[in-house]
Amino acid sequence: MKAAGAGILATDMPHPRNSALRHLTKQLLQQYHKEVRPVHNWGEPTTVYLDLFVHAVLDVDVQNQKLKTSVWYHEVWYDEFLSWNSSMFDEIREISLPLNTIWTPDIVINEFMDTERSPDLPYVYVNSSGTIKNFKPIQVVSACSLQTYAFPFDIQNCSLTFNSILHTVEDIDLGFLRNREDVKHDKKAFLNDGEWELLSVSSTYNVLQSSAGDFAQIQFNVVIRRRPLAYVVSLLIPSIFLMLMDLGSFYLPPNCRARIIFKTSVLVGYTVFRVNMANEVPRSAGNTSLIGVFFTVCMAFLVLSLSKSVLLVKFLHNGQCSGWEQPLLCLQRDADADESRVDPRAQCAGVTESPIYQEHQAQPGTLKEVWFQLQSINNYLHTQDQMDKQEVAWLALLYRFDQLLFRSYLTMLGLYTVTLCSLWVLWSGL
Question: Are strands 213-226 and 155-164 parallel, antiparallel or unpaired?
């Protein structure tokens, strides 16, 4: 009963259309040789038409000069041995064939730095005229000369060059699947919500001449630019605020010890800020970013200003100590001199003089004592006056140095601000 039922079902089912597909596939591949370039006249080149859609920028490695992108890659070529008359095969105009059963061009990307990462798509489309379409997504890790001078307003231009690795232009030629202007301004497939923004994908065709022969190649120039807002908020604005705080310390007196405490606090804060933000600034052995130069110059100004304040306070402190010690030493010498001026004859004889005689004898000693005290005070005042003059001279010199540092600070901040604004305007104009 089951066998009879199966036979009835097989009889009632309509003639399956995929039998024509199986017959067509068998006929196409039965005598097909994938090792041979698919042309009847070997003197005619096989033209491979290329197209590229940039899907996303996955990573920009400035230190290793690598760019990682996700692209959709299209290859189209004509196979003269895979064409058929669709009217003879139930009007089948397009079929899919396994990629490993047909001839494929050896197109590679010259800038590849890593293994190609793409999903395994084992089939290609073939239409009745013999046109083969090979569409596949690829994660490309390519070498690129990344310039970070204008960070975070930098614009990168990286190229992807396609060419045959073995076949010369006489065997395999390349062409564009779409118009170049359409390729250049097509951003529909790009994920525009990351750190990088796609500006354009320009393309050029040229023939590379070498000792091995002439090779056709197509170069796609992927131009991207960074969105700087996050770096402006996290890097530029805090660093400018710290510099403005240090700039305000110039309004404190140069000989004020609180100025050292204030500048030390700013320097410590700036150092902590630099350490925390070190990974945010891209580092490259070939070039230095402008913001890195700005950070280094600002720290140099901080250290120079702080060192000047420390030296000034130390000099004034040493001067004040020497100024107080000198009159004490003078007074001590005067006391020693008074003890040595006692009459030795009186000590030896032990004769007791009358009060009138003692009064007349005491007057010259008192005058001499007053004279020595006046001389000591005069010497102290003269020394103090010299020290005051020297202190005023040093203060005047340091005031001039402070003004020079202040003007240099303003000039540096002004130039840096103008440069950043110019870079931002150029970034916005593209």
Answer: antiparallel
Query: In the structure encoding, which two tokens stand for residue 45, read together?
Result: 């080149």
Is 184 within 8 Å of 203 (Cβ atoms)? yes
Contacts of 198 (CB under 8 A, 6+ apart): 54, 57, 187, 190, 192, 222, 223, 224
CA separation, residue 105 to residues 60, 78, 172, 265, 364 (Å): 30, 11, 8, 66, 124
**Cα separations (Å) of 12 from 6, 9, 19, 196?**
10, 5, 17, 61
| CA 152 vs CA 66, 229, 292: distances in Å | 18, 9, 11
pLDDT digits (tens, 9 = 90+) for 106-156: 999 998 877 667 777 889 999 999 999 999 999 999 999 888 888 888 899
Q: By the 8 A CB rule, do 164 and 172 touch?
A: yes
Q: Are 225 and 430 in contact (CB under 8 A)?
A: yes
The length of the chain is: 430
Query: How far apart are the C-alpha atoms of 406 and 6, rounded to whole Å?
Result: 100
Q: Is 2 exposed, middle or buried (0-12, 13-18, 19+ CB in 10 A)?
A: exposed
Question: Rounded to whole angstroms, how far apart are CA atoms 124 and 403?
Answer: 75
Q: Is the pLDDT of residue 372 over 80?
A: no
Is the whole-model pTM more than 0.85?
no
Q: 284-316, pLDDT tens digit by residue? A: 766 778 888 888 888 888 888 888 777 777 766
